[in-house]
Amino acid sequence: MQAQGVQVTGHVTGADDGTALPGVSVVVRGTTIGAVTDFEGNYSITAPDASVTLMFSFVGMLTQEIALEGKTIVDVVLESTSMELDEVVVTALGVSREKKSLGYSVQEVDGDEVSGTAQSNFAASLSGRVSGVQVKAPNTMGGSSNVLIRGSTSITGNNQPLYVIDGVPVDNSNYATGSDGWGGYDYGNVAQDINPNDIESISVLKGAAASALYGSRAANGVILVTTKKGKTRKGIGVSVNSNFMVGSIDKSTLPQQQFEYGANYGPFYEDPTKNFFYGDVDGDGTNDLIVPTSEDASWGAKFDPNLMVVHWDALDPAADNYGEKRPWMAPPEGNRMPSFFENSTIWVNTVAFDGGNRDGRFRLSYTNHDESGILPNSELKKNTVNFSGSYNFGKKLTVSANVTYNNQKTTGRMGTGYDGGNVMQSFGQWFQTNVDFERLQEYESPTGLHRTWNYRYWTPDNLTPIFFDNPYWVRYKNYNDDYRNRVLGYVSADYKFSDWLTMTLRSSIDTYADVQNERIAMGSTDTPSFTTRQRNLMESNTDLMLKFNENFGNISLTGLVGANYRHRQQQRITGNTVGGLVVPELYTVSNSVSPMNVTEYLGILGEQSLYGNVSVGYGGFVYIEGTARMDQSSTLKSINPDADDTYFYPSIAGTLLIHELGGLKDVTWMNYLKLRLNYAKVGAATGVYRTISTYDQGTNWGNMALFSVAGTLQNPNLRPEFTNSIELGLEAYFFESRLGIDLAVYQTNSFDQIFDVPVSRASGYNRMFVNGGEMENRGLEVALHLVPVKTANFTWNIDVNWFTNQNTVVSLAEGVTSLQLMSAWDVKITAAEGEPYGTIKGTDYVYTDGKTTVMDNGYLMVGDDPLAVLGNVQPDWNMGIANRLSWKGLSLYALVDMQSGGDIYSINTKYGQATGVYAETVGNNPKGNPMRDPVDEGGGNIFEGAVFEDGTPNDVYVPAYRWGRYWYYNNSPTARYVFDASYVKLRELSLTYSLPASVLGNGVIRGVDIALVGRNLWIISKNVEHFDPEVILTAGNRQGIEQGAYPTVKTFGINVKLNF
Amino acid sequence: MKMKNIYLLILVLGVLVSACELPDNVDPKSATDVPAETLMANALRDGLRHLDQMNQNVNVSRLMCQHNSMMQYPEPSRYEFSDRQIPDGYWNTTYLVLQDLREVRLLIQDLSGSESFNRNLANKMAIVDIIEVLMIHNLIDILGDIPYTDALGGFDNKTPAYDDAATIYNDLLARLGTDIATLNAGINDGSWGSEDLVYGGDVAMWKKFAATVKLRLGMRLADTNSAAAQSELAMALTAGVLEAGEVMQLPWIGVSPHVNTINDVFIVANRTDYAPSLTIVSLMEGLNDPRMDNFFSQVDTSSETDVEKWAYVGLKYGLSSNESYPNYSHFSDPMFAGDFPATFACYAEVQFLLAEAAARGYTTPMSAQEHYEAGITESILFWNGTEDEAVTYIAEAGVAYDAARWKELIGTQKWLAQYNRGNEGWCTSRIFDWPVMDPPEDMTQEDIPSRLPFPYNEPDLNLENYTAAAAAIGGDDVRTLLFWDVKHNSATPSPN
After folding, report:
1. Distance from CA of A635 to the nearest CA of B (A)
2. What is the pLDDT of residues A121-175, one digit of tens each?
3. Which of A766, A983, A1025, B1 is the most exposed place for a label (fewest CB within 10 A)?
4. DSSP class of B268
5. What is the band of B11 on the pLDDT scale with cuts at 50, 70, 90?
6. Interface pTM, i.e. ipTM
7. DSSP code string of B61-86
8. A337 by DSSP, 3-state: which?
9. What interhelical angle do B203-220 and B165-185 show, nearest 10?
């Protein structure tokens, strides 16, 4: 039989790397005539005639149509869709899986996206990029990141995800001190040691089903980092990446100070005007007006150029200007508080070499990170060397190893919380706005004495700080430093028994030594001291896994069984001086006035586990996967012989690829439609030493040891805690994948939680460890992918991540209906039955007909209930919108990140208003008179819109001219300082240019990318004055409090990438 | 792959799992067993430090009785306790100490031996009991009803019920009676050693102290249960109370953190938050009190250069403003010393208790006037004054005894003698309603508290029992009177 029609042949390659594409479907449009490319990407098809059009389609590629127009050889280059439908993702235990077969939610982020802006903590870069992931950070250099995946699940325990790098769990201890808000330093959480420049990609495993194989530690989700590896190539590839960023503070996030009135607490001082200290400084026989240095408030005299006053800097007899009088005026614009902040700089340079052939591959990289912060005397330096390699010993055995050495040294970490070590406590709460910052820079007299605006009194023997050190003294004298050396790595052997069965033995370690040193110099407000904390961590994990993967006709079978042994040893020695330093400027623990204090901690934990999973697929469109794990943990060992330290938990997930079903296969506008459903149970043990009580030791009384019953009662009957989760998801791509959507709804219940429930001290204890309590999280996540425009040269991509998480504390322990995560400054952050976690409570306004009510004296009435619900830490929803416009080699990227809802209690605002430091404490009242004038002279202020108890409108003016009046009357309701924490931010903006190959030619340089990048450049909208609503104290469960917050830093810079 | 290999693999897996012995779950850096002596010393140190505490975050008695005023952050002296959760601090430390003492009992209760050994052990238990009574009555005197029979239940009772304060008082008095009898029986059998930081195990002194506390608590009942007061008085005197020159004191070793709480606050923590109140300074000035030098420092009040004008300057109580530390008097220099001892009972207190008893017509060794004058003399001597100073002082118009004004005179002098003893000072000002307290700025006598509110954490942690206790005492209000408190002075009207 003679063939009819036209024989057409050709070769199909992918645009990305030019490799041949096997399996591409070639169809004559409008017919059922078709063919498939072979292994070399070649095809042959017989068309009815030479005028037809051929359609080339392949999963993950944009379908192309080409009219034959008489041609008989048609070579095609297929471009990938931006959403790779057939992509392979890294899942639990580092196992690569086809994404389409997964019955749970995994979202990936490209490594370039987290390294582009040179963040010292890469987790911050996830904000807005992954739905379901909330990231908050306290604006401190090298500080902690609070990362929540699908909300908080643990009532008092850790809610941070597990970080895993190439299958190796990474310690993420939070070493920030002062999470209670009473002061400390933000040393950060240590997963930030992961070098962004070594990251190839990040997989975020959100639900319990995704992370069930990791067991206990993964109950809060997993951030799975895959590092860059060497590639098979000719010769050795070299790439260089340089990033330089400059940061400046966003002044809209600073406390907004007033500059109309200066220091004091109100008119009750010594001079005739009652605003100043009064004494003869210059010895001319007449009394001078002297700034009331002891006062950390600004309710004082109105600035007046004709009023001559002795300022703080003229009180030191050793000063050149001793006794000098200057006009009573605000400092010049450039010498005010914002001038204290410096521009930050970050230099990150990476060089990497890689190479590989049939038998082996390697990559070696070095990164240097050199950062200076916004505060004087702050710098952070990091060096990272990473080596990874693998070698095939014959066809069956592959050995790979990966080792990262990392050191960091930081000087001048930023103090946090309500403490003099945090300069913001003074700037935002307790300050004199007459202070000139240029003069503050001379913080030490020639004789070494501390010069501060906050002298005890003006007389020479009282020139010592009373409440606040000079902020420059804080930064240059009372600085801290810390350093850490860390080694992280693994060796792994893969033995291929056959095509379908592989055994993997992998051993990993994560070990570091960390040292923190803190100083208080002689002459400071606080007792001079030196504290050192030295920590060692060693965690090892050994896994033996048997992986299998086989197809039986239409049935595919893949899975593994394995065993894990985990050993963790954490040691800490803290030493501090007591009662002061003997020799000035000698910072050793033994330089202690009273006997030094040394405490030790040693935590040893062991866990062993058996686990397995199996995924069965049928026909490439339906998959069922199950996992099971059994753990035994040393932390549940107890003196109670009945205690069970072994626990088991399973998960099951199902996937249906609807687009593969008969009848739907040919619907061309629908490329992909996947339904997934999973249920998982995850068990968890607890921290070390919670089953046996011990005594607390105090400082010896002479040579007598002192012991006390510990405030926390340990429990010999602890059981493992469990989390149940169910998730339903839908993934779909339409119209050549130009519209993609990924939906997930889930419910997670964490119950039988092990936590130290606070109890009435009359029971003999503060807290008792119990099993109890249940938290529920329900959420909806939407990831949307849009390509509104796509032409040969121009593409516009939009990625939207929107998510909401509704949390409820279902129950607490027996007899406990509410517990306080934090209680201070008249506010309580609580977890109470039936309420969301992190509910903000305190006293409320009293409402009459919906209006705030004042007493007859014009001051606010305060509700009786000290635990009125005033708000909640958790947002209503979060959203990230990323737009990328690409035109030839030019790409513009903008990420807008927003939060709707959530509340924050601002202690700065409360005290900054009370002390008359803030801008709203000046200006005119509704009568048009200065509000700081006495009420009987038409001044004062009024709670407008408020009513008296009988409902009549408030017409009483109250004083606004001294401490506490109006702005913080002794009993303003807590509600007055609770604010909406919503924001919209331009999180990232970048413009990247890749030099085209035609420019580079065939020279040594194979690729050049230049990017201008910016981060946190613009807060598009927020509802608070004086601070950034996104700030936190530090990572952890005590959220919803603004306390001496630092301003947000806008960073901007350039990133150059060269490939050789 | 051969089946043999699979068996081999399963074997390897099995070995890997079973070979690993998990580490123990016992904290290697903390003690699981300690000698009872170390807990005893700690309980005494913590408990007595607490009763003496200068720091307003946990104990505001020095402010409530107006021996001191607040110079900075005046809120606590203006009866705002919620910001700092002051009652919580007080309550927490009390139960912490009681818990340590309970542990001491548990550790020694099963010991037994010779008769003398057993009496020694009984003495130890009795001393523990006396300290418990001291801690408990001090907590009652500040709050009213407190958890007592249900307290310290651990897992078995996380939410202890409150007991009626008067009932607890009766039990405390009975316990003291038993303790006195026990100590009397074993008077020569010894007790604790150097871990008894107060008396070094001196059984006779503990017995005297127990009798003194019995006298104190008995006399607290005078207004509400006169018969009980008289019988307790008689029992205390029979047992033998503290005698001239005898004190119950904690001798601080003067090395931080074991320093006098004044030293701790002003020197170690470098705070300047307090000054002697105008209430006490002006009262003593009016009486030409010879103890002023020993109580206070002076400041130069001259506004002229080269002219010095030294004077005692008290800080008016309860101002809403912040004041300058150098402008006011402070504690006298010796009181700042780290090893300045803290006092919890003394002969002067005994004399004032007896003076009150005599004035009420109870049977006492001497007349009211004699006891009154003996109390004043003892106090002046205690503060390093002389007999002559005492004689002159007792003759002062505002000091000389006058039976018609016994409440005012005894109350005032007892309150002065209790300077630097905030807890007892506050009890005295409430019992006698003398001297008249100075209402804080913008407040009246009616705003002056008779107690502190229950701990702010209790509604959260123990709601049902808290609610019942609040109802039982007549409302968790600072103006609710304690069961032993009856208003006498017309200047301090009873709230209604």
Report:
1. 6
2. 788 888 888 888 988 877 889 888 889 999 888 888 888 999 999 888 899 998 9
3. B1
4. I
5. low
6. 0.93
7. HHHHTTSEEESSS-GGGGT--TTTTH
8. helix
9. 150
- In A, minimum Cα distance to B3 occurs at A497
Cβ atoms of A361 and A461 closer than 8 Å: no
User: Architecture of B1-18+33-52+85-241+453-496 per CATH?
Assistant: Alpha Horseshoe (1.25)
State chain A's mean pLDDT as an integer.
90
What global pTM score does this model have? 0.85
- Side-chain half-sphere CA neighbours of A37 within 13 A: 26
Mean pLDDT throughout A328-347? 96
* Interchain pair A292, B324: CB under 8 A: yes
Q: How far apart are CA B153 and CA B156, in angstroms?
A: 5
pLDDT digits 0-9 by tens, B423-441? 999 999 999 999 999 999 9
Count other Cβ atoms within 10 Å, centred on residue A281.
21
Residue A480, helix vs strand vs coil: strand
Distance CA A467, CA B377 (A): 42
CA count, 13 A, side-chain hemisphere, B164: 8
Q: Output phi, psi for B205, to 5 deg.
A: -70, -40
Q: Among A470, A128, A427, A377, which residue's Cα sits nearest to residue A253?
A: A427
The count of residues in chain A is 1060
Three-class secondary structure of residue A114 per DSSP: helix
End-to-end CA distance of chain A: 57
Model pLDDT for residues A650-697, shown as the tens digit of each residue = 999 999 999 888 777 778 888 889 999 999 999 989 999 999 999 999
Mutation for testing the A interface, residue in B8, B22, B99, B308 having most A CBs under 10 Å: B22
Tell me, rounded to whole angstroms, the distance of Cα B244 from its chain centroid: 22
Residue with tokens 């004041």: B323
Three-state SS string across B420-454, please?
Answer: CCHHHHHHHHHHHCCCCCCCCCCCCHHHCCCCCCC
What are the tens digits of pLDDT across the range B163-206? 999 999 999 999 999 999 999 999 999 999 999 999 999 999 99
Dist. CA A550–CA A558, nearest whole Å? 6
Option in B22, B103, B159 nearest A760 (CB): B159
Smallest CA–CA distance, residue A763 to chain B, in Å, is: 4
pLDDT tens sequence across B294-321: 999 999 887 666 788 999 999 999 998 7
Please give the Cα distance from B17 to B7 (Å, whole number).
Answer: 16
